[in-house]
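Trying the structure run again after the queue cleared.
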Amino acid sequence: MYLVISYSLFFVSFLDFLLGILSLKNNPRNSNINKTLAVISIISCLWSLFPAIVYLRAGKGLDFNFAYRACWIGWLAVPAALQFAYYLEDEKSRLARNIGFILYPFWVIVFILCLTTDLVEQGVYSLIPYRDRYGPLERPMRLFGTILLFWGVYKFYKIRKKATGIKKLQLNYFLFISMFFSIGSACTSGLLQLFGGFGFDPALTAYFSVFWVAFTFYAITRYRLFDIQIIISRSIVILILLLIVTVIHTVIFKILEPFFGPVVSTLVSFSFIGFLVSATPLINKLQRNVNGLILKDKYDYQNILKEFTKAIVTILDSQELLYHLIETIKKSLRVERIYLFLKDRDESFHSYFEWQLNQEPKTDNSLDPKLIQWLMNNRQIFIREEFVSRLPEERYRAIFGKIDGLKAELVAPMFFKEQLIGVLILGSKGSGDPYMQSDIDILESLAAQTAIAIENARLYNEAITDSLTGVYHHKYFLMRLKEERGRAKRYNLGFGIVMIDIDHFKEINDTRGHLVGDAVLQEAAGIFKRYFRLTDIIARYGGDEFIVLLPNTPREGLISLAERIRSEFEKTIFKDGNKITVSIGAWYYSPEKDSGFTNEEIIKKVDTALYQAKQMGRNRVEVIS
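Done. Tokens:
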């Protein structure tokens, strides 16, 4: 019986140790929650280990009193559990820190008194049946510990009751088993012993951690707190590292022990191992190799975030920024479809970007206001699988039914200063794997950083764009012209410039009014945006004149595009029934013929072409090479 109890407790101790190590290793955000979970697990590991040693020694007829005194280390898990509860509510909780400052030293002192005096623990007569000799402080300490445990139970209950959404799903089982673990420990190690114990050994309370570890691992795998592949990867690294350390120590000890004795040989061995682990890249290389074998770089999220952050700092164009976001998500999460919806001036959310693997995207180009309201109220990522199982079907259909047509698995809101500015919708992963908490974490980080970058890009665009037409200022155009000339020379590329003037625009202002004239300018800018490429730089150069830079464009393409623009204006009926034509001057740049033109000289050439078009009757295109 002693050995059965002993070996089973050794196994429980190993599970606790594994959970503690995983909590520390899977902590990219340096979370206090993970840290306190690791402390609870490591203390529970020792709490199971010392009773295992007690029953092992008892089974062999050896003295076990010192090991039994060490079982009091389990009470150190109480402040850790209280900290964990408060950090779940607020990761920067001052009360949680104060609990640590006060209760850890208190229970350490109690533990030292157990080991060195008879004030708390005087020794055990028998394990089966259990008979103990109480020290004068044992019952008061058990009573105090019991009160603290029930405090923790109350706090866990409140958190479980307040939690909503995916947080509730993730924490539901975990909080339930934490309450069960705390109540069981309080009753068997506290209340029961205050009334004589009834022959039950309080050290066996360590068995409650079996349920705690089991349900914690269940919550981890079922509700995406960690990825099981990451757990396997970390475990293999630990096992390989232990094997390497064991082999190195054995070899060094065997070689040196005959010459220098066991003490010196052990010191040299441990010193070398310490140097190998702390001063060399052994652990990092081992981790990378194992990750490459098991994870195949699926979760190299730190590097992805680092590269993304570096990139968006330098990107001020909102279109390029959002394209980079989509590419990063495709690369990191390997999804089958992505939709990006941005808020328009009318406060509705319309599709800005759509991508599907091997398919043509099909959407009705807007999001349901009920979904937008839900995202604004809840401010959390929506995972379809979780809400299908949690909400009644009618309520689910009312809020999320419309996005089912997009085959959405995950919806991520993008907030900036409490304002919802965009919504990311992702389909399934190409691998068929579910979304893990690590996936959600990186998506939240990408969305938050992108929201800030979008706002910065918007402010920058406001500074370089014309407020009436939404195209660039001519000063920005001149800056880009200088850059493009340098690029064209470097790579031997040609480019084109067109200057467009609205024919008889002054008459429109004089006869129809400036409001109508402004509307004509806005409609004209809209035509330019439809016909020119995203890479082309459209600017308002004067009152009714626009100028466009067309990088990497052949001469024939320049003429053809200019003619299409002229033709589109000729057949377009503007608001208020206006029929409008344009005159276009075009100039083609060839790097071989560049004799050191200045920007002003180039603009003058284009302006000359435009003047010729107007002189020759308007509503035509003239080109100068």
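The chain is about 60% helix and 10% strand. Worth checking whether this holds up in the mutant runs.
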